[in-house]
Structures are given as C-alpha cells and as structure tokens.
Specification:
Length: about 230
C-alpha cells in the first residue's frame, strides 16, 4: 500500500510537476481533485479494514489500524526517496492530507507521528497478548484524542493562517467565490508550528507513559497478591 501510494504521487508529479515538486501547488481540474479526495478516503477505509480483520478486541483493532497506518506512511516516503530521490531532506515540506482541509509540514513531522503510533500500537498488542483484553481508560482515550487533535492543528495551522489572513470564515463557506480558490492555490508554506506539534506529541507520549505505569503497577499488585496467597 505504501508503494501504491507513492506510485500515484509519482504519476501525478510527472504530469503536473515535470521539473520537480514544489509550492505553490499546480491547479488541478475539479474532477481530479474529487478523485484524489475519494482516493484518500478509500485508503483510510482499507487501512481501517486491516485493523478490523486482524484485531480480536476493539482496542486491538485500533492498535493494528494505527500500526498499518504508520508503516504505510513511512514506506510511502521510503519509496519516493528510492525512486525520485525526494524528499531532499527531513525538513522538506510536503502536502500530507487534503481532508477536511490542506495539511502541510516538514517530512520529519509525520514520520515522528508514525513512530509514536508504532510505539503505542506495539504496547497495546503486547499487553493484549500478555493480559488478554486490555481496555484503555477514559482518561487515556481523552489524552490520545486530544494529542491527535493538537497535532492535526499543527499540520493545518500554516495553511489556515494563510487563508484566514485574507478571508473570513463566513466567506470561506461561499463556495462560489472563485477568488478564494485562486488565492488558496498560491499558498507557499512559511513556518511549521513546532511548539504546537511538540505539545500534541507530549500529550500522546504522556498517555503512553501513563499506560506503562498503570500496567506495571497492576503487574506488581498481582505478583504481590499471588505471593501472599501462596504464603497462606
């Protein structure tokens, strides 16, 4: 799936960016834009189906989904590097996603997120195999969702700031305003909000650390309880 993703991008770049990919983005036809949006949605459904088919519990299904998502994302860049020698560096900007708005950021940022997702998924799967069904607490879910939303904010921050500097939110809902699309296509990334990104990563890592501490405490409590029962 990582190769298929990179193959589609390679074809598109050959057509729209024969001299090499760079910002601002080239205006594509509305038909291709809709196709690309649907392709991204279909990719998410395929990745989600892997988690649903592989995991035994809801928590494990979630773990396999984020694991496959992370591997897919990393190998997407591996194949682009192998075939196009792109990105030039870890700090090269890329368009990461188009739903519900444009996500952009240095390549290193989504790779960091993918590695964090692999860490989280490996813990959940390992804990499930060791202690059968491991359920995430409400607090852990809140932290994970909050961290994810903050990271998404960091990826959309620069583009949304660019658009909102020129148009109000009410104007953005006027889809017939062609000036908005003409302005949006001129977008060139300026700066990535590493502070916001770091906060999001910190929240997720905090949730993972909290899981490890609780799991360790449960293990010691069970071990202590087992010893006490044996002594009796």
């Amino acid at each position: 799936m990582g190769f298929l993703e990179s193959a589609v991008v390679i074809y598109m770049r050959e057509i729209y960016y024969p001299a090499g990919f760079d910002f601002p983005l080239v205006l594509m036809s509305s038909k291709l834009v809709v196709t690309e949006l649907l392709r991204e949605a279909a990719t998410l459904l395929m990745l989600l189906s892997i988690g649903i088919l592989t995991g035994k519990s809801k928590t494990e299904k979630f773990a396999y989904f984020i694991y496959t998502f992370a591997i897919w994302d990393i190998f997407y860049y591996v194949f682009l590097k192998a075939i196009l020698c792109w990105p030039e560096s870890w700090l090269t900007w890329d368009v990461l996603f188009l739903l519900p708005t444009v996500w952009t950021g240095p390549v290193i940022a989504p790779v960091i997120v993918s590695l964090t997702m692999i860490l989280l998924s490996m813990y959940i799967v390992f804990a499930n195999h060791k202690h059968n069904d491991v359920l995430l607490s409400k607090r852990e879910w809140v932290l994970l969702i909050l961290g994810a939303l903050v990271i998404i904010l960091s990826f959309t921050w620069d583009y949304c700031t660019y658009i909102l500097n020129e148009y109000s939110i009410n104007e953005l809902f006027s889809l017939q305003n062609k000036n908005i699309f003409a302005y949006a296509i001129k977008y060139v990334p300026v700066s990535f909000p590493w502070g916001i990104f770091t906060i999001g990563e910190g929240i997720i890592l905090g949730a993972i650390i909290n899981m490890l501490i609780l799991a360790n405490n449960k293990y010691h409590n069970r071990h202590l309880s087992s010893k006490q029962n044996q002594n009796k």
